[in-house]
Amino acid sequence: MASSGLWALDYEVYGDVQGVFFRKYTEDQGKKLGVVGWVKNTPYGTVTGQVQGPKEKIEIMKNWLRNVGSPMSRIDRAVFSNEREISTLEFPNFTTKY
Fold first, then answer.
1. Residue-wise pLDDT tens digits, 82-93
2. Active-site residue among 41, 63, 66, 84?
3. CATH T-level assignment (fold) for domain 4-83
């Protein structure tokens, strides 16, 4: 069976990431890269979500979440979990959840 080359992972970003347009920039970056998934604020002051797409684009998104973010954000750390290969994308696009 051939590999689909599609991957998914969950993420949570810690630091000054709420009230600084982090979700908007994350959604824009996901759309720019052509990956799908979602982003949302948590009650704990973090931002969490899931991203799905080709492995190389997932790696670019991980780097962006870990090191770039929105211009006014301060990222202390990004935690990635549940990284796995998937057979099909589970979302039609990249969105912000509320």
1. 999 999 999 999
2. 41
3. Alpha-Beta Plaits (3.30.70)
